[in-house]
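In keeping with the milestone schedule agreed at the kick-off meeting, the structural modelling team has produced records for the first pair of proteins. Each record is given below as a sequence line and a structure-token line. The laboratory manager (R.T.) confirmed that both were archived under the project's standard naming scheme.
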Amino acid sequence: MNWDTCVKTYLEMILNGCPKEWRPTVCQYCGTSVGFHRHGYYNRMLYTLEEILEILIFRFKCKHKACNRTFGLLPSFVERYQSAAVDVQEQVISELDNGVPLRVVAEQLDLPTQPYSEKSLWRWKKKWDQQLKVLEPIFWQTVLSRVPHLTLPRGSQSPRSSRGWLFLAWREVRSHFTDSLEVGCLQWLIHLARLQAVPFPGQDLSYFFRADGGAGIFHSWSGWHTGRDSGKNPQWYILPLLVHQADSINS
């Protein structure tokens, strides 16, 4: 599926089941291409800014005997274990970045569901703070490779944080990457992460594989770093050294 597919388009595309072109070609766990069995699907309730929708996530099972694991094909507008769509999270983070108090953001978040607590919204912010530390270099490299003469405001109109710069730049260059004016910056960042298989500390590598089953982990990387979780078991993650071919990301 295209990375900029919206929820409504996704629902239309799956009316007759999982399209053949969505079938995975590489296992998200073992990296082999020996083939996959369809393994059903599961339902996910998704809260968007306008309504509550039920979507299907299709599952596949790796045929490799040493793996034999199952995984779901997630579209870019939703994350694992999340019921709120990515555009909901982006609205919250944008308002916090503009100086709106957390309490006010929680009170004014108008969703067709039970209100989210301040604690939940704070967790979203902390999660994206961590992820953007890894994705920000990829973002700027990709943007500047496509729009090398990008002009951004200076002085009093400048954003307050690095997140603000990303959101501002995305609004300026969005038309260079998608025809949809509704696709937010965070959805594109999720696409970049999955395309390049960029895992963050402590997270499952399978999260970052492309929704179409492809994997970027076996190419385009020039190095890696390791990190440790509180001095316990090593958590391996990969950081790009910004020498990837931009064309592989821009597609």
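The second protein of the pair:
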Amino acid sequence: MDACENTIERRNHELTNLTLRRFFVNSWPNMANFTPVDPNDARELLQFMRRFYEVDHIHFIEEVASGAIEKMLDDESKGRIWWIQEGEDRIGYVAITFCFSLEFGGPSAVVDELYLEESHRGRGIGFEALRFVERFCRLRGILALHLEVDRGNLHAQALYRKAGYQDRNNYLLTKWLSDESNVD
């Protein structure tokens, strides 16, 4: 890449960041606001993750979760994590990861985790969090947003369907490639 292309690339990146900052400052005056998780928040995020995994019956390995948080916060090309807040109170978090899909024609993202404290569920905040990440993704040129939901979590399925997510009648199959993450 020559100097001119580097300058254009840097300018496009700066304009995108400026647009995102303007959008996010004024876009959510309703129930919740969304602030990026900072590396200094890692310990608190781990506690939220522990509660989420307990509710969703996911085996929680703190070392694995801690390493994943660190990698994601150190490299924005992997994804983003935001606090879901009411005022100054953190009531949950939402995380998206980035990928590329031939099937969907380009950049896509996954709502990797969406968690709200139980006392804040059923009030539309989860729906608002989905709208927030959808807008963020659209501004980044992401063409499709995916998510995974437990087959037994009917409440979450209803939320996702209400937000326009469709069951594609596929299975998400997983094969662990690392012994440290392979848990029963």
